[in-house]
Amino acid sequence: MQYDKYVLNRLAVLRAPTGGVRMASRSLFDKVVVGSIAGLLLVFAVFALVYAPRGTVRAQNVREFFMTAQPATIELSPGVMWNAWTYNGSVPGPILRVRVGDIVKIHFTNGLGVRHSIHVHGLRYTIENDGSQAYPASMPGPGQSYTYTYEATRPGLFYYHCHSSDGGRPISYHIQKGLYGAIIVYPADQWPPKTEYEFVQFFGEAQLDPGFAYHINGAQAHEHDLLTLVESQGYQGAFDALKAAGVPTVPVGTELTFYLVGIGDQYHSWHMHGGSPVFVNGAPVEGDVIPLGPGSAAIARVRVTNPGIWLIHCHVVVHADAGMVTIILAE
Amino acid sequence: MQYDKYVLNRLAVLRAPTGGVRMASRSLFDKVVVGSIAGLLLVFAVFALVYAPRGTVRAQNVREFFMTAQPATIELSPGVMWNAWTYNGSVPGPILRVRVGDIVKIHFTNGLGVRHSIHVHGLRYTIENDGSQAYPASMPGPGQSYTYTYEATRPGLFYYHCHSSDGGRPISYHIQKGLYGAIIVYPADQWPPKTEYEFVQFFGEAQLDPGFAYHINGAQAHEHDLLTLVESQGYQGAFDALKAAGVPTVPVGTELTFYLVGIGDQYHSWHMHGGSPVFVNGAPVEGDVIPLGPGSAAIARVRVTNPGIWLIHCHVVVHADAGMVTIILAE
Amino acid sequence: MQYDKYVLNRLAVLRAPTGGVRMASRSLFDKVVVGSIAGLLLVFAVFALVYAPRGTVRAQNVREFFMTAQPATIELSPGVMWNAWTYNGSVPGPILRVRVGDIVKIHFTNGLGVRHSIHVHGLRYTIENDGSQAYPASMPGPGQSYTYTYEATRPGLFYYHCHSSDGGRPISYHIQKGLYGAIIVYPADQWPPKTEYEFVQFFGEAQLDPGFAYHINGAQAHEHDLLTLVESQGYQGAFDALKAAGVPTVPVGTELTFYLVGIGDQYHSWHMHGGSPVFVNGAPVEGDVIPLGPGSAAIARVRVTNPGIWLIHCHVVVHADAGMVTIILAE
């Protein structure tokens, strides 16, 4: 039936930006976190190596993640294929959730054809863990591995990305091919975090060789397609179809947390339909649109106050027109 | 006399961005606000329809606005004509001033050739009032009408715009053709608002088919024209001519409030000459330039501390060079 | 020896953005500040002229600066020459350090071929000191001089720039040719300021006639050159060579203050490697990247927590790839 095929095509697109990636990331998260490796010898060994000068000895958890740079073919929208470079197969890569005070270790393997690396924001580290041109050994070649060690010292939303310019490609190219992901550092008293209503969204430009595509989390959606869906199925029919296809569904009145990163080289901004107040980093925002300049991050807390099919999109409207759109359902 | 003609041409340009549009908007505002329609039956009918689930019943005013999408030809600067799409004949459309706690109703009529809509930021509403592709009935076709109902729940500067992508034109096109305007929600204890020294300024790109023009409130001015005017008339002569032509004139020392919106798809920023401190959303701003990213809004409070012909312009300087300039007089 | 030549070429580049310009600016600063010219007659003359209406008489220092618009040829990176317009021979021009309450006087001489001016942000002034088209006499022609008088009324980071559009060149051109510099207004109780660990960084686009080059403080550096340096000399060898060449070196744990200005017409952002928390205008920043929109300014306070060769670059990554990079050493 034509409707089914149409909806499924659409849903594949609509699903990915929030539900799909979030769930994928969470399962990765469950897999890669080896929990609290509390062996005192290891803790003290890392401690002595990295933090000896600071003096005070206190118990620290070590959280370990295993990440591999690898290729993946991602369908940004029906028929628009993206030969991406990824960490662990998805764009963005796995969400690294840690707690203030943690030692964070990333065991990185380069499964691609040129040098790559992991460079983090917001964590504390020594130069050996910079993942940049300032310490070349921290950018392993094809088939090589490297372990990075950091300390989480303050709460917030940060991210990691490749810092290599190998293969005759500038650093911007390495990033826009897909090598980035989020780091969320939770306050010490908010652990384990409640992640059910957390949404991580990267706004960026996918490097298509040549050209690029605006996307959120490796997916595009188009508002006129939503129009067609609702007009063909009726509002409730569309809602039900979207929900059945896995579009994230949240209860009215629940506080949602959006972790937002502008990972591209262009200016983006975040807008959510639904009429509810938006708080960003604890303060209200005039006009309820959140700026996401290149490299910027923001944490938005939102309550959806009415049921609906609610759009989320870049308010650089030409970017939304070009696919920088996603959806959330509230009931 | 050549001088008169020159000044009048210039003044037509200089006047529009602040004085002209502000006054036009205020008179529209006076016309469209039907005051507090306190008929208890209507209040309770709306109340029951939209807010029944919330329980507590309290008195709410209903403020009604009548808006029509209609064409207008706007002279951005002498000889630069813009075939705009407008709400009620001006760009930006009427300023909607409401109070926290109000029910807001917009009776919208589409007087243009394709579907259009009103989508608001910052107010609370149900999906039937979204004015987007998620609820197609809220985007009426040519000759049709639709009534939107919202609730104002928090103070601030918001705005409304068309969300339609009808006619083979993306949403960005509908907006950049001129379909937007401001919503100011005043705190409950600041009503009626004192609007004498309030200035609403939209920074955007006018869609010219093809190409676009940087403008503030549907008008352009050029700094080299001001130079010519002052050099030909003398400083006091230029001041007097500008004042006589209706350029907004404010008393030194009075607090001015600027309601600023970046409505375009490019980054803009706001700078005012005159040396006075600038407070934005209650806090000082480093460097005294206010960022206006796409979709962003800001409220700036300024005291002009000396008399003068004071420039206001985008500090993306190429935009100022291209006409994103206006003027205020202080005495 | 090839290595020496290579390092020296590199170091010429790496040095300029922070150490070179900072030191140059400081020596200029020492030269141009004539201290507190406390002659009561002068103070009262200025006072009577500019501030008579305000009534209260209190003691104010007058700080005087002498600035000349003059050409300079700046090597942005090896072989990339920039025929710049400068204040006093450098881009940015001298740093003007003043204290809240000061009267600030700039004795400006135009040593270039068309009209130029000085227009300040953040200070208080009368229209005669606007340096813009609103007061043409404040934009002197070639060989002419003009004295500007301002009052510093609030602390913060501001800047000055040319506001002329003479010579058939728009204002943006005058600025992007190099005519700008910083004004730092210190709180009254922080004087004299401790400037040893202060860094002023302007992010902009150098007008090359035709085309432009991304730069920080009139210099470019490239991350792949750093890679080559470290790989050829070893990490410690590179560190020592950079230090010997004058790259700024700071002690681990010391609070550094970065005064940042986005002076270009494009969006930039500031990122520093090293893993330390970043505070901007007193508050932490999500994601640790600082937005620098056109005309924006920010004050960042940073502690480098580990020794290293630490990169500072624009996080609009294509800009970093194009040379918007500098370095700081910590030990």
Give the fraction of residues assigned to helices of chain A. 10-25%
Largest sheet descriptor of chain A: 6 strands, mixed
What is the quaternary state of this protein?
homotrimer
SSE-based structural type of chain A: alpha+beta
Strand order of the largest sheet of chain A: 10-9-12-17-14-15
Task: Please tell me about this protein's structure.
The structure is a homotrimer of 331-residue chains. By secondary structure, chain A is of the alpha+beta class. Helices cover 23% and strands 35% of the residues of chain A. Chain A has helices at 2-32, 40-51, 171-176, 223-233, 235-244, 317-321; strands spanning 62-77, 80-87, 96-99, 103-110, 119-120, 145-151, 156-161, 180-186, 198-207, 212-216, 249-250, 255-262, 268-272, 278-280, 283-284, 290-292, 297-303, 308-314, 325-330. In chain A, the strands form 4 sheets. In chain A, strands 10-9-12-17-14-15 form a 6-stranded mixed beta sheet. A 5-stranded mixed beta sheet of chain A has the order 11-19-18-13-16. In chain A, β1 and β2 form a beta hairpin. The longest helix of chain A has 31 residues, at 2-32. Chain A is globular, with a radius of gyration of 20 Å. Chains in contact: A-B, A-C, B-C. The A-B interface holds A 223-224, 226-227, 230-231, 235, 267, 269, 271, 273, 275-277, 284, 286-289, 291, 293, 305-311, 315-321, 327 and B 119-127, 130, 132-136, 150, 153-154, 156-159, 165, 170-172, 175, 261, 265, 267, 281, 291, 293-299.
